[in-house]
Amino acid sequence: MPEYAGEYPALYPSLSGLDEVLPERPRAFHIMTKPIGALCNLDCTYCFYLRKEDRYPEHRGSAWRMSDELLEEYVRQYIAAQQVPEVHFAWQGGEPTLLGVGFFRRVVELQRQYRQPGMVIHNAFQTNGTLLDDEWCEFLHQHHFLIGLSVDGPPAIHDHYRVNKGQRGSFEAVRRGLELLRQHQVEHNLLCVVNDYNSRFPLEVYRFFRDELDERFYQFIPAIEFLPAGGVTPWSVRPEAYGEFLCAIFDEWVRRDVGQRYVQIFDVALRGWCGLDPGLCVFSKHCGNALALEHNGDLYSCDHFVTDHNRLGNIVDVPLADLVAGPLQRKFGRDKCDALPDYCRRCEVRFVCNGGCPKDRFIKTPDGEAGLNYLCAGYRRFFNHIDPAMKFMAAELRNQRPPANVMAWLRARELPQAAVTTVGRNDACPCGSGRKYKQCCGARGR
Fold first, then answer.
1. From residue 58, how far is each of 48, 64, 99, 296, 440 by CA, in Å?
2. What is the pTM of this model?
């Protein structure tokens, strides 16, 4: 592995990565575990999962908490089913901190009990951060949890939709949580839900994360909720707006922040330009190896398909590994590719997009075929926009050079032509790389 591989961790996945193809019994799979179901202390306007509480109307109070018996059964089965040396647990909600630190102390204890010799256990934990305190952060640091912290931008932008039960903004509470994560050196990244409002302010959001919060790792997740009567909710991001949002941030990142700041969708795209599976279920050719487990042991095909049709069963009644390998789930995974409309199959960016998430395939193609992704126009705009820079970075990786060279390459491309014509072949390249022009931008055929 090149020494600069750490710049792009998504390009060099561990052996615990999901299978690129879909064998009947996958070597590894991923579960989004929801031990407190949909319960949350916030009331974010766009949160589709809050309404999943209606699936279990009989559950009240402690009934929403995963029992100790079920937790042990889940940890045991999940570890036993993974045929890889590294096992990744993911904990979400609702808001998992509502369970208290003691619940996750028990998680770690059970993981130690059932861990196989030589196996490494990882934990990821998604939170709104408002309930974090010193005890939480000491625990998270001690046990190397990776935290995904939800932040939607500067205070006024964040608070537009991310409100508490009293409908007041949550930003200041989130900021306190972020400061505690930093003080205790807890590994974390920012998860930004891109909605109809903050999509209007891409650079304000990105620069706030970079310059004000001084954070390095970001995910930009589109908010989309389809209405049964047709169309989407008012807070759903519009396709063109999402594409322009990503393009604006990319243009700033690729000129000054490559190798210093990391944006998930940019890393995923670079995998695609390197000829690899994108490595994120949304853009992978197949899906089906990323499931969701509810607090009562019900297993669903995906976090976005918690429906009667996609309930695979309960892990108390049927072993987890058998549910994952069952025909309903294997078909669910294959359908992502098999059900692509012809319009997608002919698309020039299919190699990196693969039709996007099946949950968003609810519009028709220009010729009237069903199954086109709602975000198609935005994805197509974005992936075509980044093509020249991605081709350059992929070529740098193939030639054992750091992709961050793209910043100097772009500076040279954007110099006035007159300045370039005065540069001799043996002169220092004007891009600032420190190499001769003939060995740098001159060799790349500006």
1. 20, 10, 19, 12, 67
2. 0.88
